[in-house]
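quick one before i forget lol
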Amino acid sequence: MNQLNLTLPKWIDAFLAGYPEIIPDMEKQMRFVLELTERNIREKTGGPFGAAVFEQHSGKLVSVGVNVVVGQNCSAAHAEMMALMLAQKKLGHYDLGDARFPAHRLVTSGKMCAMCLGNVCWSGIKEVVSSAEPEDVESITGFDEGPIPPDYNVQLKLRGINLVPEVMRAQGKEVLQLYVDLDGQVYNATR
């Protein structure tokens, strides 16, 4: 097999139909992402993580992603990875920071794990807005966030990526707790 196809859950289109194409306010963008994440949990279509790519200044929604690791049998199918790959596919370019495009922002329900952090560094994203912190994810759910560098924020800044952490953090933690309360699967790799 030499082809890979990853898809988001079928309910995504109906979910998106209930929202405007432009969400200019950062907090409203985060509320949208947390509602997307909660829907993924309640539909039992993946882990407790959601993300969206927006044009940074206009607030135009470019793409969304939810965690679909188990359903797609792919450890790379994290919400941020899905949102970034779909944005790149939609724009027809691997670099979301290319001069032909407006600057883009990734809004995510949790600060990126080690894998998603790497993808953000190479995606061309100019800003990341996150809710729950890695320690929230690990302590509430038990997911392994991987070897995150202690100078995480500095590393992003050195690459020209602005990080806005802890936006609606309490609500982000509530969404993680909902996953636990609904017996969501924790699918850390066997070691």
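fyi The two ends are 26 Å apart (CA to CA).
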